[in-house]
Specification:
Elements: E1 2-3, H1 35-38, H2 40-70, H3 85-116, E2 123-124, H4 134-150, H5 157-179, E3 200-202, E4 219-224, H6 234-241, E5 243-247, H7 256-260, E6 266-270, E7 282-284, E8 289-291, E9 298-300, E10 306-309, E11 318-319, E12 321-323, E13 329-331
Antiparallel strand pairs: 1-2, 3-4, 4-5, 5-6, 6-11, 7-8, 8-9, 9-10, 12-13
Helix pairs in contact: 2-3, 2-5, 3-5
Bound molecules: FE2/S2 (inorganic) cluster (FES).
Organism: Brachybacterium nesterenkovii
GO molecular function: 2 iron, 2 sulfur cluster binding; metal ion binding; monooxygenase activity; oxidoreductase activity, acting on paired donors, with incorporation or reduction of molecular oxygen
Subcellular location: Cell membrane
Length: about 350
């Protein structure tokens, strides 16, 4: 093995041409020492920079935790009314920013530390047979312990202290959200805003929908009439009530009960995927399949939205509907079972 001496500018020597001809191994080019290897001031600068990055990571974690409580989507929010989309946006922005800063600067500090301060020795080692004898294993252990020594951990208490601080406060970013878990949802998931007599309205403008306006194979994104910004727990109610209606030819329907809960082939289903809750509303008109974009669960709306592919385990809950005297589509009641992801006592009566 031939190496450079880190304290000098000698180069790795070229190896002789192999026996029998061929090109001689040109060896490695002259080794360029980094500034921190030859200039103590540059070394201290790099050390301070690495420590500063760990400190920035700590500040990122502090920003995350502070934002979590000061820009809550449903509680205290310094920039917006709680329970509004603005409150959700500010919360997402600041907590995301805090976590990004926290994780990014830990990574950046590690990379800069490795590139500027870790040992920079060039080494050449001839290939040898695989497998180590006892002596080789002893040397491996020796190399590892030398590496720990050479990494300078024991000589750089500033970096070590800052790094320990950064890693120590990072878990707080996980604990902060946990501290606000609860109370238990109780029967909240068993009920939505839908109830008998509420008209089905278009999600984007709130106008009611007549059965005669629903063309064959079309899809509408719907919300219950009366669900507005003024509604208590508006965002939560919207999330639970989100649904779609599709119109199929009743003659292709395979599930009598599902057809009976619709009106003339117009069927209403929850839009919340029963896997982990993404909006499942990609409708294939030709196949009458409803797709969830997150993990590709596929529901057959001609067969009561049963799962025909993907990780979801149960059909999309169907909203029973009828028409009122003026021809508008109205709900006959709430969803018969909880919407969204399944949980252990989902069919327990509440
Ligand atoms: S959330 Fe729909 S498939 Fe996973």
């Amino acid at each position: 093995m031939t190496t450079t001496d880190p304290s000098s500018r000698t180069t790795v020597s070229a190896l002789a041409a192999p026996e029998g001809g061929g090109f001689p191994n040109p060896g490695l080019p002259p080794h360029e020492h980094r500034a921190a290897d030859v200039d103590p001031r540059a070394e201290r600068r790099a050390e301070r920079l690495v420590a500063a990055m760990f400190v920035l990571s700590i500040l990122g974690t502090v920003l995350f935790v502070a934002s979590y409580f000061l820009f809550s989507p449903t509680g205290t929010n310094l920039l917006a009314e709680p329970d509004t989309l603005h409150a959700v946006r500010w919360n997402t922005l600041f907590t995301g920013l805090g976590l990004a800063i926290s994780v990014f600067f830990i990574g950046a500090a590690a990379v800069h530390w490795a590139k500027t301060l870790m040992p920079d020795h060039e080494m050449v080692e001839e290939r040898h047979e695989l497998g180590s004898d006892a002596e080789g294993q002893r040397q491996a252990v020796q190399i590892l312990s030398d590496g720990i020594q050479e990494s300078g951990i024991t000589r750089r208490p500033l970096i070590v202290t800052a790094m320990v601080g950064a890693f120590a406060v990072l878990p707080i970013a996980v604990l902060a959200p946990l501290s606000t878990l609860g109370p238990l949802p109780g029967n909240k998931l068993h009920h939505t805003f839908w109830k008998a007599g509420l008209r089905l309205t278009r999600d984007h403008d709130g106008t009611p929908i007549k059965a005669s306006e629903v063309a064959m194979n079309s899809i509408f994104h719907i919300m219950p009439e009366g669900l507005t910004n003024e509604t208590e727990n508006y965002l939560e109610e919207r999330a639970k009530a989100a649904a779609v209606i599709v119109r199929i030819d009743p003659s292709i329907g395979q599930d009598e009960e599902s057809l009976a809960n619709g009106y003339n082939g117009i069927l209403a289903f929850s839009k919340i995927c029963t896997h982990v809750g993404c909006p499942a509303a990609l409708y294939e008109q030709q196949t009458h399949h409803m797709l969830c974009p997150c993990h590709q669960s596929t529901f057959d709306v001609t067969d009561g939205a049963k799962v025909i592919f993907g990780p979801a385990h149960r059909p999309l809950p169907q909203l029973p509907i009828e028409v009122d005297a003026e021809g508008y589509l109205v709900a006959k009641g709430d969803f018969p079972e909880p919407i969204g992801p399944s949980f252990w006592d989902i069919h327990k009566e509440k």
